[in-house]
Specification:
The structure is a single chain. This protein is α/β, with parallel strands linked by helices and 543 residues long. The protein has three domains: 224 residues, 3-Layer(aba) Sandwich (Rossmann fold); 172 residues, Rossmann fold (3-Layer(aba) Sandwich), CATH 3.40.50.2000; 38 residues. Helix content is 43%, strand content 13%. It is built from 21 helices and 16 strands. The strands form three sheets. Strands 4-1-3-2-6-7-8-9 form an eight-stranded mixed β-sheet. α11 packs parallel to α16. The longest helix is centred in the last third of the chain and has 42 residues. This is glucuronosyltransferase. InterPro entries: UDP-glycosyltransferase, UDP_glucos_trans, UDP_glycos_trans_CS. It catalyses: glucuronate acceptor + UDP-alpha-D-glucuronate = acceptor beta-D-glucuronoside + UDP + H(+). It comes from Heterodera trifolii.
Length: 543
């Protein structure tokens, strides 16, 4: 784990880099432009996964729809995601960079640790020394929006002179990102994004203990580990006088998250955090004739099965695939549309199950909005779960990696999902686990009722995601320094003052002195009493 986080800073800068100019506008984007000028905006988008690309592309499209000149600066990381249909934005200009990432771009569903492979430690260094990139972008942009999968790009954007630096997150908030803004993480109820506790924000004693130890480890060790790795690289690239990355991050004007306040676990935030969950609004299309026929001919409804772009289903164990197929076969009146690329051998196996329909690609959003959609078997990427909420479809959650477990727990806590552990699907009894989970999602009305209520809250949330994005970006362009929105942080107040240790010690000292005085007084009064009792006894004897 420490080795992973030591190299975490380099993840974003390992492959081919592309520049995307002038993203396509969305018809629905608000047109009111509050800025005094047409802004030139750079959107930094690492291709971590299709959902991340959707989120950043929707941000770019929304800003173009508001009349701004938008360019996307892309770091190529996931070839599988890039091969998918680009419905949100189109690449118009490519700039190659030396790739160091895993070339297959595949994720083995049975080996979750593949996602944690360390990366080439020279990549960030190499990237910072690309003078052609610095010269090309220098002082050209009014605003940059960068997905903070890693904080290092902010050093480059500071170097090229972008005054308004804005962060984005395609996943829920987590400690590394919010710490520079002074936002505290309370171990009593804020569970970690990447090692979440099963109880969510209502953890039992053991979970709170583990969560506390994780946060303590992060605070005492990992907090300084990244800085110790980044500092020499940045100093070598930009010189001794270049400001610390921690300070650059603190000066980020705003952070836009792919969250909605009604579909998130409780945690402290600040006014620098702007929720724009739901901004990904691809146009809903007519279903393809083949897919439409499957849905229309299903007797009791249809179930979507999709594990996202990271999962390579071909590497799933045959026993697990068979468990899924046998479980689906026990619901013969439902049609199961499974997004999966099959080998010839697997295609023969799938052909035996008449209510299971494998497809290489599907318009997930258009399917979810269909009135015959009954459930969604999902890996619980944030976009997928948000889409399920927006269309009122309950979820059978099978998280695989990264933030997906957190999202699955959140969906279960909200009462819209049944959660299964992918590890349990590799052992005997997996079929029955899937059957039980599907039976609950399909036949327990509480899941559909809960998701419909969330759907209504999503739809009725005051101020739309697009309006908030446009207004706040234009505001930040006019007023780049928004540090009054920061909360005080530990380095500013000092550890003793930040955690009120000095106050606690002072109160403890006062209470201790007061207790000592009471003890001395009690001792004095007791002695007086004993003396008086002793004298009284002597007088009685004499009489």
């Amino acid at each position: 784990m420490p080795k992973l986080l030591t190299n975490f800073c380099t993840l974003i800068l390992i492959c081919q880099i592309t520049l995307l100019a002038s993203a396509n506008p969305l018809e629905e984007a608000p047109q009111k432009n509050l800025a005094k000028k047409r802004l030139k905006i750079l959107v930094y988008s690492p291709t971590i996964g299709w959902s991340h690309m959707q989120f950043m592309g929707s941000i770019a499209d929304t800003l173009v729809g508001a009349g701004h000149d938008v360019h996307i600066f892309r770091v190529s990381m996931n070839k599988r995601a890039e091969a998918l249909p680009k419905e949100v934005f189109n690449v118009t200009n490519f700039h190659n960079f030396v790739p160091n990432f895993v070339q297959t771009g595949k994720f083995d569903i049975n080996q979750m640790d593949n996602f944690k492979e360390p990366f080439d430690g020279k990549s960030f260094n190499t990237f910072l020394f690309q003078t052609n990139i610095i010269e090309q972008f220098a002082e050209q942009f009014d605003v940059v929006l960068a997905e903070l999968y890693n904080q290092c790009p902010m050093a480059l954007f500071h170097r090229i002179g972008v005054k308004t630096k804005l962060g984005t997150l395609a996943v829920p908030l987590y400690q590394t990102v919010v710490r520079p803004f002074g936002i505290p993480t309370l171990s009593s109820y804020v569970t970690s994004l990447f090692t979440p506790m099963n109880g969510g924000h209502k953890m039992n004693f053991v979970e709170r203990f583990v969560n506390f130890v994780n946060d303590l480890y992060d605070w005492l060790y990992l907090n300084n580990l990244m800085a110790s790795y980044e500092k020499p690289v940045i100093v070598e690239a930009f010189g001794q006088n270049f400001p610390p990355l921690k300070q650059i991050m603190r000066n980020v004007s705003l952070l836009f998250t792919n969250s909605n306040q009604f579909f998130e676990m409780p945690r402290p935030i600040s006014n620098k955090i702007i929720n724009i969950g739901g901004i990904v609004e691809m146009k809903v299309k007519e279903l393809e004739p083949e897919i439409k026929a499957i849905v229309d001919n299903s007797l009791d409804g249809t179930v979507i099965v999709s594990f996202g772009t990271f999962a390579d289903i071909n590497s799933m164990k045959s026993e697990m695939k068979l468990a899924f197929l046998e479980a689906f076969a026990r619901f013969p009146n439902y049609a199961f549309i499974w997004k999966v690329e099959l080998s010839d051998e697997d295609a023969k196996v799938f052909a035996k199950y008449k209510n299971v329909h494998p497809v290489k690609w599907m318009d997930q959003k258009s399917l979810l909005m269909h009135p015959k959609m009954r459930a969604f078997v999902s890996h619980c990427g944030l976009n997928s779960v948000s889409e399920a909420v927006q269309f009122g479809v309950p979820v059978l959650a099978i998280p695989l990696l990264a933030d997906q477990l957190y999202n699955a727990i959140m969906a279960r806590v909200k009462g819209i999902a049944v959660q299964l552990d992918v590890g349990q699907l590799n052992v005997e009894g997996a079929e029955q686990l899937l059957v039980d989970g599907l039976d609950k999602v399909l036949n327990d009305p509480s899941y559909r009722q809960n998701v419909k209520l969330l759907k209504q809250k999503f739809a009725s949330t005051p101020f739309g995601a697009k309006e908030k994005l446009i207004r706040w970006v234009e505001f930040a362009a006019e007023f780049p320094d928004l540090n009054e929105l920061n909360l005080p942080w530990e380095e500013e107040l000092g550890t003793l003052a930040y955690y009120s240790v000095d106050i606690i010690l002072c109160i403890a000292a006062i209470l201790g002195i007061f207790a000592w005085i009471l003890f001395k007084l009690a001792k004095f009064l007791a002695r007086k009493y004993l003396v008086s009792v002793g004298k009284g006894g002597q007088k009685t004897k004499m009489n």
